[in-house]
Amino acid sequence: MRVFLTGANGWIGSTIAAALLEAGHTVQGLVRTKEKAEAIAAIGVTPLLGTTADLDVLRAGSRDADGIIHTAFGVDFARIVAMADEDRRAIETFGEVFAGSKRPIVVTGGFGLLPAGQIFNETARPPIVPAFPRASEQTAFALAERGLHASVVRLPRSVHGKGETHGFVPMLANVARQKGVSAYIGDGQNLWPSVHRIDAAQLFRLALEHGACNQAYHAVGEQGVPFKEIAEAIGRQVGVPAVSLSAEEANAHFGPLAMWVAGNGPASSEHTQRTLGWVPHEAGIVADIARADYSRA
Fold first, then answer.
1. How many distinct structural domains can be found in the chain?
2. Is 285 part of any domain?
3. Ramachandran sector of residue 34 (left: φ over 0; alpha: ψ -120 to 50; beta: rest)
4. Which of 118, 198, 225, 261 is deepest in the core (most CB within 10 A)?
5. pLDDT digits (tens, 9 = 90+) for 122-178
6. Cα–Cα distance, 249 to 91 (Å, whole number)
7. Which residues pair with 245 in a beta bridge?
């Protein structure tokens, strides 16, 4: 297949690109700069310069593609509403180009915060968190309702792996270094789902090749890891103790991250594994953080 991949140089996108190439697909990747274009060209991806705001560029990348995987999305809490609107317009543009065909569009989604005692499965629709109104999933399902072959791969809060620099683990490690402790809230038994990025990349490939229309798939390698265990692992790597904080103390300690640190969001990938034959093989998050080269990266 000829695949148009947005975010081709990103934490997830670069790994997806490698998985697609290994499976024999050709990949055209959207990147923002010439330097990033050179980097992906070196591994065999055809670069396309632009951003998800450049709708004409997106049309050009989509026009001759047999399928699209959309991963591009910034992490800038100050511009989150604007980025969500840009994301929505990008996905709608893919739908315009693919209208009248059954070419697959795979869009990246995620999980909201759940009350204790619930496990999020593929048939549910995620709670919308006001502070993070990403519209990817809703837009993809709207395309599917119009007859396009659109599906969603939901990523958990932690997509980990060697070289991680911009996800939750590095952010929490930075807080631990600054504050001198690696903190969790209360008893720390709130659950975080996680996945290794290599496993996640293989799921995107399978969803493109074999995924059903109007379906959500869960890139979940671990259904729910107690946050205390993650905080303890980060503490060991950074060289600081793990401590419990009250909810009030956590707001001051973590700032905008406090909501996510306290959040509960266990999720199942049982349906995904059964229907697509996806089996996660890589290390879990606690074991991954324990790698000697994880914190240096």
1. 2
2. no
3. alpha
4. 261
5. 988 765 444 344 678 889 999 999 999 999 999 998 999 988 877 889 999 999 999
6. 40
7. 185
Residue 288 lies in a domain: no
Neighbours of 191 (CB within 10 A): 19
* Rounded distance between C-alpha atoms, residue 271 and residue 251, angstroms: 36
pLDDT in tens, 227-259: 999 999 999 999 999 999 999 999 999 998 998
Is residue 169 situated within a structural domain? yes
Residues 137 and 100 in one domain: yes
Whether 149 is in a domain gets the answer yes
Residues 109, 185: one domain? no
Domain boundaries, position 169:
160-191+224-265
Q: Are residues 82 and 71 part of one domain?
A: yes
**Helix/strand/coil (H, E, C) string of the chain?**
CEEEEECCCCCCHHHHHHHHHHCCCEEEEEECCHHHHHHHHCCCCEEEECCCCCHHHHHHHHHCCCEEEECCCCCCHHHHHHHHHHHHHHHHHHHHHHCCCCCEEEEEEECCCCCCCCCECCCCCCCCCCCCCCCHHHHHHHHHHCCCEEEEEEECCEEECCCCCCCHHHHHHHHHHHHCCEEEECCCCCEEEEEEHHHHHHHHHHHHHHCCCCCEEECCCEEEEEHHHHHHHHHHHHCCCEEEECHHHHHHHHHHHHHHHHCCCCECCHHHHHHHCCCCCCCCHHHHHCCCCCCCC
The total number of residues shown for the chain amounts to: 297
Rounded Cα gap, residues 13 and 9, in angstroms: 6
Q: Does residue 136 share a domain with residue 18?
A: yes
| 48 & 174 share domain | no
- Do both 30 and 166 map to the same domain? no
